[in-house]
Amino acid sequence: MIALGPLPDGPLGVAVSGGGDSVALLLALHQAGHVLRAATVHHGLRPEAFAEAEGVARLCARLGVPHKILHWQRKNERGNLQMAAREARLHLLSDWAKAEGLGDIALGHTQDDQAETVLMRLARGSGIDGLAGMATKRVDHGICWHRPLLSTSRAGLRDYLRHAGIGWVEDPSNEDTRYDRVKARRALEALQPLGLDAARLAQTAEHMRRAREALEQDTLKLAQACVSISPAGELRLSDFSSAPREVQLRLLAAALQWVSSAPYRPRFVALEGLLEACANQTEFGRTLHGCSIKARKHEIVINREVSAAPTLGPVQKLWDGRWVIDEPRAKSCEIRALGADGLSLLSDWRESGHSREAAMASPSFWREGRLIAAPLVGFGDFGGVKLALGQKGFYEALMTH
């Protein structure tokens, strides 16, 4: 039997490519008694890929596991094909899971994958968060993704499959040294005589994970002491200069991410430059990471940058990543940030108590070029517009899930 990391008790989705890692995961989950549904993403990048997906379907039929092949309707992708394929997998698998009523999907990442990830991030100069490697679980696209094999070696999984008499396919791209992961794999082989093997790097990732958790707790305590968020989504950081610099940087990065709904932190050099400017200048204004930032003595005020918000378009239930729109009458309108032009139409917007920057970044509803409502500044009678997360949500976003 293969040792599996913690998993939920209910039905579980499993992504199976046909490679040794994911096939071993499928078999181990089945033998452990999990109620499973499996899916294979067919990227259409290799002629033999569909036949491999059908092979997974046959194995699932033998095991009594429902299976579906998900097809990537690929356009003429430019740039990083591997990244595009990864995003396609996330979208296809999450949509499939939701249609199946699943909230959890298991992935076949191994100890070797963890070690390769740490080595690649080390080469990029990553800090503690990057060197903590892949998490055993994370939430993305509305699904909880689990990696129950991070303590198991790739070789161990293949021995397990040989003993079970089950075959697998090898993707030729795993030998293509144009890819960074393959380069990292070759580097690990060269470093083994020094004792720097997959197990040691995975152990380092675990140490870094614990260090990250400690920093997250310190950042949360700092946030609870110095962060305030208005109903219009304006985030204020009061004086936090006495905190350790790493904690200051983490909190500032989280604030920018939360206001912009960006999935990634700002670049470190830009972030450090902003913090330095906040410490050395009495007052200034600038933009970064889709945010408008104003600094005054002992305070940083962060709003959404109007030009970075979505342009005029159909009303969505979640607009700009953080505004819940629950107003039936809005369906006949279009939505955008109020902006300077919209604000100029409202003579009494100051009575809302919000700053000019917050007012301009707030949701507004338009019909045929006419402003219908701007709820956060008291124009029109639309209701049902509020922050999706609020201050409590910001605190939760500081912690890795």
Features:
3 domains; 401 residues; Uridine Diphospho-n-acetylenolpyruvylglucosamine Reductase, domain 3; alpha+beta; globular
Please characterize this protein's 3D structure.
The chain has 401 residues and is α+β, with helices and mostly antiparallel strands. It folds into three domains: 192 residues, HUPs (Rossmann fold), CATH 3.40.50.620; 95 residues, 2-Layer Sandwich (Uridine Diphospho-n-acetylenolpyruvylglucosamine Reductase, domain 3), CATH 3.30.465; 83 residues, no CATH class. The strands form four sheets. The protein has a six-stranded mixed sheet, with helices on both faces. The protein has a five-stranded antiparallel sheet with strand order 7-8-11-10-9. Helix 4 crosses helix 8 and helix 8 crosses helix 9. The mean pLDDT is 91.
